[in-house]
Amino acid sequence: MAPSMHEWDPDTNLFAHSVIGYAIERLQLPKDTRWGALPADELAVVLRPTITPTGVGGLEALRVFRDVLLPACRPMDDPMNLAYVPTAPSVAATMFDLVVSASSIFGGAWEAGAGAIAAENQAIRWLADLAGFPDTAGGVFVSGGSAANLSALVTAREVARATRTPSSRWTVAVTEEVHASVRAAARVMDVDILTVPVDAHGRLTGAALEAVLAEHDGDGVFAVVATGGTTNAGVIDELDAIADVCDARDMWLHVDGAYGLAGLCSAIARERFRGIERADSFGVDPHKWLFAPYDCAALVYRDPAPAAATHAQHGTYLDAVDRGEWNPSDYAYHLSRRARGLPLWFSLATYGTAAYTEAVDASIRTARAFADDVASRPGFTLLLEPELSVVLFTVDGWTRDDYLRWSRERARAGVALLVPTSWQGEPCLRICLVHPRTQLADLLALLDDLAAPHEGRTW
Ligand SMILES: Cc1ncc(COP(=O)(O)O)c(C=O)c1O
User: Fold this and answer.
1) How confident is the model at residue 33 (pLDDT cuts 50, 70, 90)?
2) How many Cα atoms sit within 13 Å of 6 on the Cβ side?
3) Which of 87, 235, 240, 450 is the most exposed place for a label (fewest CB within 10 A)?
4) What's this model's pTM, rounded to 2 decimal places?
5) What b/e sequence results for 112-143 when a residue is b if at least 16 CB atoms lie within 10 Å of its CB, and e otherwise?
6) Centre of ligand 1 from the C-alpha of residue 290, in Å
7) CB-ligand 1 contact for 345 (6 Å cutoff)
8) Closest atom of ligand 1 relative to the 85 alpha carbon
9) Among 87, 231, 282, 390, which residue has the most ligand 1 atoms within 8 Å of its CB, making it the best to mutate?
10) Span 96-352: which CATH code?
11) Helix (H, G, I), strand (E, B) or coil at 395
């Protein structure tokens, strides 16, 4: 069957319903966690050529996706996917992502996407309110935390440039625990990095920041990136004390909360982010822990005007754009954009913010209960009390190779995906919980499995 590209005929109708039907099926089915990457040569054998002059037809292409391609992708939303930072999009958010695609909205300029942008801005406002930002705050949804960090830092440098010419190179202050995307942003911007040591919990403190800045030659440090929930350990930097230093030294404070700032909507964790209200900008990724599908990151500025001055694009072909309205393109490095905040908006509107509080709290509670169990088990060491939903722990006597082999074997068996990392130079295991349906009992079963004698194991 070859449905028409732009005509709606009976074949197209059947095809369209098949695609939507498949999407609904994928959302409901219990997932097989054995899905995962195949070596490229194995995939090449099972994936026949599909791009041909006449096409293979819509139903066949869908079959190939369902039977060949998707099984070679990791199920990121499985409740037992505990590696890196997984995802847990709500049913409403995922279904609405399809609606956004079907609606062909240009989300870059108000004149094209006013309705969509108004809804996205409600979601941005919800986040700004959670952070305690003023009514004048504003922001934009970008593709990810990396894009948010880059766009915020470019704005910060423009703000600094407007007020001073430094005697040294422009520099961003961070810690070793900052996400790799911040270092990548510094490379793109050709600015230097000043690394501040962390405390015993892996946290950036105001005192350490001040001490390093006092020793630093030159006045090029224009921004500090603090983290609201580090990727590796879920640790929240000392935001209030860092804001004091930034105020005193006239530096931009960006809080990277790609993973952890979802905790702002948690009744349990909110207090830990004290000082976030003093940041100049923050980023949080709804595709991580706010139940939106990829790709969706919110970048919020306390004062959006300098961001617009930095990022707005101009050209004769853009002269006709109405500059008097809120144009999301102006607030980050992009022009055309999908209204990617709409699935989050729809999910919030569908379920209410209380459901978000409940869902984020569920992961934090499960992480704490899991950590308590680890701490009380002989043969295990809890490395840090979890602040959010990341737990780091070791199994006595295990090497990095032991962790790796166990992790690979359990992933292959479809039990769970958790991968080793390091804490203070030592290998350890890490779980990151974002799915409210992750069951404590299943996590404890992993500990039982790890505790079983591994002498003579075939893995
Ligand atoms: C703290 C932090 N910042 C930035 C990122 C990068 O986000 P993205 O992958 O959406 O670009 C991550 C990803 O895990 C993160 O945890």
Assistant:
1) confident
2) 0
3) 240
4) 0.96
5) bbeebbebbbebbbbbbebbebeeebbbbbbb
6) 14
7) no
8) 14
9) 231
10) 3.40.640.10
11) strand
